[in-house]
Amino acid sequence: MKSLAIVVREDGYDKLLTPLAFAYLQGAEGTQVDLLFVNWAVRALTEEGAKGQVIQGEHAAQDGWVRQQVEKAGLPPDIYDVIQALKATENVNFYACSLASSIFGVNEDNLIPEASGIVGASWFLNEKAAKAEHCQYF
């Protein structure tokens, strides 16, 4: 596969880990991966938001255990460290949805340096998703 577009709409440690793992696996193989973070997930593209991700809901009490298991599996246990590892592949781009950014307080001042910018959803769909060989939605 040459290109993959991923739309990430859910936040929470475990909910972010899945699309980031797909991005890491494909990016490490040379696939161009573009991720658009929408809704609550856009907060993960700020340092505070990325570092503050926890498991929510019925599995919240297992947050520490899951992080240990993630580290045992060879991945960084912190979402921001995962984002940095993805960026280091030089094949992964992170985009913040402009509407979600305005709703959830993400701007150029608090956007992590690993992010490629704040873009409109239509731009992402036309320029990245429509041209990708495969699209995923989380």
Automatic annotation (TrEMBL):
UniProt-listed Gene3D superfamilies: DsrEFH-like
Alphabetized Pfam families for the sequence: DsrE (PF02635)
Native source species: Thiohalophilus thiocyanatoxydans
Name used for this protein in its record: Peroxiredoxin family protein
